[in-house]
Amino acid sequence: MITFTVNGRSIQVAEGTTLAAALLNNGIVAFRNSVTNESRQPLCGMGICFECRVEIDGEPHQRSCLITVREGMNVITGG
Amino acid sequence: MDKRHFDIVIVGAGPAGLAAAAAASSSHMSIAIIDGNSEAGGQIWRAEKGSRSSAASKLISRINERKVEFISGTQVFDAADSTLICERDGRRLEIGYNKLIISTGARELFLPFPGWTLDGIFGAGGLQALVKGGFDITNKRIIVAGSGPLLLAVADYLKSKGAKVVAIIEQARSGSIRKFARSLWHSPDKLTQAAALRARLLGIPYKTDSFIRSVREENGEKIVTVDNREYRCDLVACGFHLVPSLELPSLLGCEIKDGLVAVDERQRTTIDNIFCAGETTGIGGVDRSLIEGEIAGLAAIGRDEEARKLLPKRKAAHAFADSLNKTFELRDELKKLADDTTLLCRCEDVAIGAVKESTSWREAKLQTRCGMGPCQGRVCGAAARFIFDWELDTARPPIYSVRLENL
Fold this sequence. Notes:
The complex is a heterodimer of chains A (about 80) and B (about 400). Chain A is built from 1 helix and 7 strands. By secondary structure, chain A is mostly beta strands.
């Protein structure tokens, strides 16, 4: 199992899980907030829609559907 | 900044790109295959926890043996002077080529309908990709909707992962689907596949002539209105068949005709030394992509004679693709799915009502910022092209959002 942090909460997932899948499994509704403040989740699952953007280790706008969860990753959603 | 150079560079490691690499690797030329994902296989052969289909593994091991370099996690965002300008791990990477094979594939067409931006509403292939990535859908009630043969494959996959597929909602008419099914008698392989799929989906209503009118939320459930009926479910997987990913060929100046890259029988585009294979030249599934990829790979290393021998297979694959696309052609009513307040552009939150007075895609972009967000119109551009019959602009760099310092 891999342990990482989402919005300050420690979460464990199976190795090889994509970050988008891990966030969905943990009930994250707002991956990001849109310009009119709607919460958004991934649409395409393949890196083209940019709806699944989150902040990872201080780096904003990372597409969570393209990233596999790494040990100790610090993720902030709803930005 | 890093710089590399290869005799042949292939962009996109799906079936077409892998087949091209395998065919070209019979030469002594240096070959690289670039992909934005971390693994080869493209969307159709997306690996699931390390395992993938045997067809994919066979091709991938063949190109590995022959020392084709796979450059993963790499996004091409610009191109100049036979060089692709990419971003990899946040750094700029330039990859030069003598010959380029573009096999960037396709993506789902998403059409806006009231409620499509709610949580729990995914693309059809989109949800499948997320589940392959580890999204647990056990016991979730799911409506699979939109159009195309992908819906059946997705429903089958979701069911195998423990979901309860409530219904499959297909916009195409039952008459045209029956006609298409009958034509499969000419291709026994496909018929066997279709029959097996049908058996596995037994008990799931397949509603043709139907489409989602709207989705709303009520007590944590999704209420999906399909024609005059309401369904309750947890998740929706909706995609309206596929559209080619044309940003790179368009940026490079390859001629685009009727929304597809124009190629000759050897997969050559209108630009010297640039070939194109797979769904960028026409939506038609894995067999079509494999044969076009093989032809492109052979043509790129000058083995035109061998490439020519594959033309009958190419012709058959094209004929199948044509009948497929005709069967699932989108009906005009889908242009009216969205109301004025429904968002068209999800990046900039631009509603349909704000763009509908525009006379062109360019005007809509300039007036409303529609298509100007991070996805750069990949979602709303394709939708606008269908809804308003607008021609899309030529792609301009950067074709992907990248870090400022890499531009």
